[in-house]
Specification:
CATH architecture: 4-Layer Sandwich
Number of domains: 1
Shape: globular
Strand content: 5-15%
Number of strands: 16
Strand order of the largest sheet: 13-6-7-8-9-11-10-14
Distance between the termini: 35 Å
Number of helices: 17
CATH superfamily: Metallo-dependent phosphatases
Radius of gyration: 22 Å
Helix content: 10-25%
Length: 534
């Protein structure tokens, strides 16, 4: 089975599918499945644009709405995860996954599906420590904080995925697993992206939560995007016993949508079951895990830790038993083609710039939860809102910090999913700024001259027992507040050589050590200026 893998497509679906069709004409290569690793931008209308965390000048409708309306149909089955530039209100309708358009399937906050017998999993969003232990409490219309926190990875999703015992063939994350850069051509990576050096040397680049999943799941393939650079690695995992067969993961980070000559390198042959269904299917073990963890659903801002074997929890193992999996197998696991329009579609002849987002219960989610006896997260959020309104309570925004709640320390003590040093590819978001007017400025998601970088897997190494956060990662809440207050002072028109990077020396204990470069919002985006300088 041929599987094509794409990085951040930033809503440019026409270009992506045209590239695949060009591959078929020129090279007689036709993929059976297309995977997209986030920043998909399933934007249906102007209200969706308001829910995408980018400055107004980058808010452009692009072409997804044509597939949503039925004007066009994806020529190949497409499965994607969310990134940090998404129409969060749209994706929030489908917390367990679902169709965003015919033949285009979203995996949800986290999910596992099967196609032709191949198990495909993924986790959406990026890692931020100050939101990691909260529930999925956000709902549209978002404010300046929740429009960003809505796409932050939560510990409940990582916990669910860690309950899986059966092998995973392919896994996707938007941000890279931390430490993965030590298993590939690091020298070439730093040559292409020299501003990664500090994070690579300090082992702070990437997501510690994704690293935890990589160590647990040990998939055959792991694909990521986010940093807009192609990078390959090969990781040989340690075995837990003499009886366990050695496992290895082929990692590939994808650049933005690329011309056909590079896309051809991103089509892989994956062994599949020729007798398996040609339809996309739910995964029985994953459904059993969802059922087992259903009581852990949290829709509050309160920070909490997942159950673990520490004497504080009566139950900590939520993995699926064989009996539970067999019970799920009694259901029809073919994912129904039940796509439904839940919002008005953009009409270029009748623009509605003042359209506001609303909190929507998607019939797909309702049907899925009814079939498997699960809690509809959005229905729970709506109930919580109504109860609070009935009591005359007003929801207050929690002050964001980098350590989680005051009662318990955060599971991870740093806030990162990308870069703290200046990145010329990234888009500057004002952490304290309000909503901006919509703009029709277009962004081309692919460079004219993408870097030539070999995707061959090399540099085989043994994965360490732990890929946890290093001691060098420590960043206290004071640093976080400095970053917020300083973010709005950046002048966008300045060139990279004119920008001054604020540094904070010492740690919370007063030790001097290495100076910290001011952490900016870790959002990597397609900047128009990059195309002019490549």
């Amino acid at each position: 089975m041929k599987v094509a893998v794409a990085g951040c497509c930033h809503g440019a679906l026409d270009k992506m599918y045209e590239t695949l069709e060009l591959l078929q004409r020129r090279h007689n290569v036709r993929p059976d499945l297309l995977l997209c690793c986030g920043d998909f931008q399933a934007v249906r209308n102007e209200a969706d644009l308001r829910c995408m965390a980018v400055p107004a000048k980058y808010r452009h409708m692009q072409t997804f709405y044509r597939y949503y309306s039925g004007e066009k149909k994806a020529p190949v089955l497409t499965v994607f995860i969310g990134g940090n530039h998404e129409a969060s209100n749209h994706l929030q309708e489908l917390p367990y996954g679902g169709w965003v358009a015919p033949n285009i399937y979203y995996l949800g906050y986290a999910g596992v599906v099967r196609f032709r017998g191949v198990r495909i999993g993924g986790i959406s969003g990026i890692f931020k420590s100050h939101d990691y232990r909260k529930g999925h409490f956000e709902s549209p219309p978002y404010n300046q904080h929740t429009v960003r926190s809505a796409y932050h990875v939560r510990n409940i999703e990582v916990f669910k995925l860690k309950q899986l015992k059966r092998p995973i063939d392919i896994f996707m994350s938007h941000d890279w697993p931390r430490s993965i850069y030590h298993y590939g051509n690091k020298k070439q990576l730093l040559k292409m992206k020299s501003f990664f050096r500090q994070e690579v040397e300090n082992n702070t680049l990437g997501s510690p939560a994704a690293s935890e999943l990589l160590q647990h799941l040990k998939p055959t393939y792991w694909f990521s995007a986010h940093l807009h650079v192609k990078f390959a690695a090969f990781m040989q995992h340690e075995t837990n016993s003499k009886e366990e067969l050695p496992k290895a993961t082929k990692f590939l980070a994808l650049d933005k949508c690329l011309p056909h000559r590079d896309f051809l390198q991103q089509i892989i042959d994956v062994e599949h079951d020729p007798n398996a269904s040609e339809s996309l299917e739910y995964d029985a073990e994953w459904i059993a895990v969802l059922k087992a963890t259903n009581d852990l659903v949290n829709v509050t801002q309160s920070s909490w830790n997942m159950p673990e074997k520490n004497g504080l929890h009566a139950k900590w193992d939520y993995s699926a038993t064989e009996e539970a999996i067999e019970e799920v197998l009694n259901h029809d696991l073919k994912i129904p083609c039940n796509f439904t329009l839940t919002a008005a579609c953009y009409d270029p002849n009748k623009p509605q710039k003042n359209m506001e987002p609303v909190h929507t219960i998607n019939p797909q989610t309702t049907e899925f939860c009814a079939q498997f006896g699960l809690t509809d997260i959005n229905d729970r959020i709506q109930q919580a809102k109504e109860e609070a309104s009935g009591r005359g309570e007003c929801e207050e925004e929690e002050e964001m910090d980098s350590t989680g709640s005051a009662e318990e320390p955060s599971e991870y003590n740093t806030d990162n999913s990308g870069l703290s040093s200046f990145n010329p590819d990234e888009i500057m978001l004002d952490e304290e700024g309000g909503d901006e007017d919509l703009s029709t400025c277009s962004v081309d998601p692919s460079p004219d001259h993408p870097p030539e970088f070999s995707t061959s897997f090399s540099d085989i190494r043994i994965m360490p027992d732990s890929m946890a956060v290093s001691s060098d990662d420590a960043m206290d809440s004071n640093n976080e507040e400095l970053e917020k207050s300083g973010g709005s002072k950046q002048v966008e028109e300045k060139s990279s050589t004119e920008r001054s990077l604020k540094r904070v020396g010492g740690d919370e204990n007063g030790n001097s050590g290495i100076k910290k470069i001011k952490r900016r919002n870790q959002t990597i985006y397609a900047a128009e200026d990059e195309d002019k300088t490549d």
